Amino acid sequence: MLLCRPNPRLRDLFHRAVGTGKPVVALSDTYHRRSLLVRLLEAVGTPLPADAIFASSEWRVNKQSGHLFDAAFNTLQVAPAEVLHVGDHPVSDFRTPRTRGVKAVLHGHHGTGHLRTAGAAPDAPLRSLLRAHASYAARGTLAPGGFWWQLGHTTFGPLMVGFALWLRQRFRADRIDRAYFLLRDGEIFHRVFEALFPPAADVPACSRLAASRRAYVFPVLDGAPDFVLPNLTVCAGPRPVGEFLDRLGVPAAAYGDDFHACGFRDPAERIDGRREGPRLLALFDRPRVRQALLETSRRERECLVGYLRQQGVLSAGRVALIDLGWHGTIHKAAQLLATAFGTGPQITGYYLATFPKFRNVAVPHLRARAYLGGPGDTDPLVRAIATAPQLLEIVCSSAAGSLLHFARSGHGFDPVLRANPAGADQLHALGEVHAGTVAFAREYRDTPAALRADAIPPALAAEDLLRLLTNPTKDEATRVGGLAHGDDFGTDAVRYAARFRPTSDTPEAVWEDYLHAFWKPGLLNQPSPQGAVLRTLLWLTQD
């Protein structure tokens, strides 16, 4: 009974009917005994006496045939025309009673057909609990933010709770003294962790730490150029080549001759940094450019170190850095700084997931753990996430602007932020996703201890995320596909998760959109004319 949840809309209707003095009965096609149905209805606040419940298990007839309705009418001595029937099955609760002369109302609710039914696996009880929470919110009016709230509650709630439970276990096992959740992605991790575990003696001191690749990687250029320089070429699609210097605080306009020497027309020429890496690296290596980069990097390094000391990150002890993960770039930069001082903290990175290329860049004394997979792991779930990591980066991102660098402020150091490039609609949507995620965490926390678990297997926690990544519903494909992703490296450049260009009115243009989409299932499942063209093209290209 502890898992029973009311449908709020039907509960309100029930109490309104009772309040007006109308007799209420229940009809159910079920194999359960009537005595159990009495207890179930009592548990959710809609009590009915046993003689007001007509169950197919005891009458040996069902609603779909209409005979259970006949049994109720005869027993109650009521005419069908005097009855209002409310139910959610299009045949048993709508079409059939209408043939009997009953006024029938089909009660619709958000479908949960994509949620898998729990099987007989060892984790079936825990899966049932997670699915009960998800189904509870999906079936009524409990999702205050609609689609986005529900996405956070159903898809990301179990994932974030599983990650937080794992973090607590790891903090204990590794005897962590201080834990820092890296902004912007770590804010939602911290909110979920706080919802589950209020400050206590068995939880290390937790706080949020301003962080970004731009602010942490560039300052270590002097000591680790092979690590830093490839990171300076990242971008979200074609950008003016001068932007790769401007975003680092080096004015591109002052180095026109160096651009020409590397084969660029001028700083306004648009390039894709991922494809033009060698030419960009040649530009960075030009003597005047290299000197300007080093001088700016050293100034930023001084402020970064000051900020980390101010926040206690570089003090002695066991320190945890919590982030999404992937390649651990921010953690690696922080470790390089800590190692350079010789003494200080023992830093461990704790990640939602890491990709196989995590180990491509080796940093001395690096310690890292991942909830999903691990460094070098290639399990199906990690591979699925690796096809569209930007999707999780979007969902986990906070409303705060992107961190550029740190600057002195009075006697301390403060983050210098760039305005968030996401529009107001996206920020509102993500706020609802996070609200639904935190709501799930609170529900899990309030679940009786006998039912919940202290750990959720990664495959179970990420089950609905895997479905979303590989086979989204049409609504998910359209809505989530319209979210924008920024490069988070000091520019306003964005790409959409999965969106056709308005001008894509030919098969060639549709195919080009598909090739450039980073969430391809999201584009493929959209119920638009372009989506239909794309599905046809893929069908035609199959062997």
UniProtKB/TrEMBL annotation:
InterPro entries assigned: HAD-like_sf, HAD_sf
Please report the organism this UniProt entry assigns to the protein: Frigoriglobus tundricola
In terms of superkingdom, the source organism counts as Bacteria
Name of the featured protein: Uncharacterized protein
